[in-house]
Amino acid sequence: MSEDLAKALDKLAELLTAKTTEATAVPKAVDGASQTEGVEKLELTLNEVKLEEVSNYLSCSRRGLLLLKMKALEGYVMGEVDEPVEKKSVEWKKWSTTDSGILAWLLNSLSPSVDASVEALPTATEVWKVLSRMYSGKGNVMLVSQLED
């Protein structure tokens, strides 16, 4: 039984880190149009440095940002890619699919205790900003004092 589980986990890891990019058809907006728009399959390399506490925030966030930059997705966590207003549009569907993938990837890059503090946040940008406020030490005098000790 444990061998089957190990094989299944290996296959899952292989699928998550595959290098190929495939397009998935997404239906056009509900206006009855017959065309479909392609949404690129999001495949991000796992961040092997899991955020656990203040002491490894810099390393984890730096690696995470580099992994996102490899796919030109850093704008989603930096707040540079705005959510489209029209929730029934193809653009919103693309944005939502990409943001959800990045959000899941981000949450997977966190230790369980850190994950529990941000898992309810709705977007990748919000998670990134909250983690930065909590762990970067910027403007947090108590945190800076703790690090200096």
What does this structure look like?
The relative contact order is 0.13. Helix 4 packs parallel to helix 6 (124-135). This protein has one domain. The chain is 54% helix and 7% strand. Strand 1 (23-27) and strand 2 form a beta hairpin. The chain has 149 residues and is mostly helical.
Compose a concise summary of this entry.
The protein has 149 residues and is mainly α.
Topology diagram in text:
Elements: H1 2-16, E1 23-27, E2 36-40, H2 57-70, H3 74-78, H4 90-108, H5 112-118, H6 124-135, H7 141-148
Antiparallel strand pairs: 1-2
Helix pairs in contact: 4-6
- Count up the helices: 7
Run of helices and strands? HEEHHHHHH
Percentage of residues in strands: 5-15%
State the end-to-end distance: 48 Å
Low-confidence regions: 19-36
Q: How would you write the strand order of the largest sheet?
A: 1-2
Largest pleated sheet: 2 strands, antiparallel
**Based on helices, strands and strand pairing, what is the structural class?**
mainly alpha
- Average pLDDT confidence is 79
Choose one word for the global shape. Answer: globular
Rounded to the nearest angstrom, the radius of gyration is: 18 Å
Using DSSP, what is the number of strands?
2
The helix content, as a percent range, equals 40-55%
Q: Tell me the number of structural domains.
A: 1
